[in-house]
Amino acid sequence: MSFHYSNEPRVHLACKISWRRATDHNIVSYKERLRVKLNSIVLPRKVLLCPDLDCSSHSTEIDTYYGRLIDAMKSAASECIPRQRKKALAGWSEVVTPYRNKSIFWNKVWVENGMPEVGLIRDIRQSSKKDYKHAAKWVIRNQDNITADRMATKLHSDVNREFWDEVKRVRGNAKDCAGVIDDAVGEDAICDVFASKYEELYSSVSFKADDMVELRRDVDIDIRSKCCEELCYSNHAVTVQDIKEAL
Fold first, then answer.
1. Cα separation of 12 and 137, whole Å?
2. CA 40, CA 34: separation in Å to the nearest integer?
3. In Å, how far from its chain's centre is CA 212?
4. What spatial distance separates the first Cα and last Cα of the chain, rounded to whole Å?
5. Cβ–Cβ contacts within 10 Å for residue 132, how many?
6. Which pLDDT value is given to residue 244?
7. Which superkingdom does the taxonomy of this entry point to (predicted)?
8. For residues 92 and 143, what is the distance between their CA atoms, to the nearest angstrom?
9. Phi, psi torsion values for 172, nearest 5 degrees
10. Cα–Cα distance measured from residue 62 to residue 48, given in angstroms and rounded to the nearest whole number
């Protein structure tokens, strides 16, 4: 087997914690699990009792305590909060799947024949397993090149729909939405925050009641003396210049 792309830094495929997908039950479980983990961490009492605010003797203990707190939060989240769904790797089904199926087949043959430690079946099993791992690593390391080639091929073939499907697949369809805004949690509470902000914005232009009464009176006079007498200009057409002059 041979592949022609150059080796690139390996793509990290670890699924991240997805707080957006966490349910109320997940959050409650996380808090309970975190409380247990935090209670097991020993407080650095010597640091707490140290009267010197500029003390540098306890920096190691502070760093250790900080690290344990962070580890506790990460561990609790990993155990209780769902993770992001894995994004399909470009080229996996085309390149890796055939080698994977072959490796599975020969492993089954090897098991059915008593798992011999030497011989032709064992050698074929080892070789197919090695090819499968090599193909998987190559696909992971060359995601950018594979994706670029697929997009170029579909663009060259003038299949617009397939091209834009590939663009959408690369960009992804998931859109993260903020879960907390101005201490408001949840969609309804966040909507109320925005409604309040817009109401405040649209009502922020101050005016005097007397000025509005006078303006309305002037408009009424103009309507009676001009529009009703067919003396208004431009048949009620308002131009940009009219607006500029009014402002």
1. 11
2. 10
3. 49
4. 75
5. 21
6. 60
7. Eukaryota
8. 10
9. 85, 155
10. 10
Mean pLDDT by 10 residues, the chain (247 residues): 50 67 89 92 84 78 88 91 76 89 93 91 93 90 81 65 60 57 71 76 66 80 72 61 61
Angle ∠(110,113,114) on CA atoms, nearest 5: 95
Residue 228: how many CB atoms within 10 A of its CB? Answer: 10
Q: How far is CA 202 from CA 47, 54, 195, 199, 247, in A?
A: 53, 51, 11, 5, 18
Cα angle at 140 between 138 and 141, to 5 degrees?
Answer: 65
Q: Which residue has the tokens 């405040």?
A: 200
Residue 137 contacts residue 9 (beta carbons within 8 Å): no
With tokens 């431009």, the residue in question is 234
Q: Which residue has the tokens 């592949």?
A: 3
**Residue located via tokens 């109401």:** 199
- Report pTM: 0.37
- Token pair, residue 140, equals 């992971």
**Which residues, in sequence order, are CB contacts of 154 under 8 Å at separation 6+?**
162, 163, 166
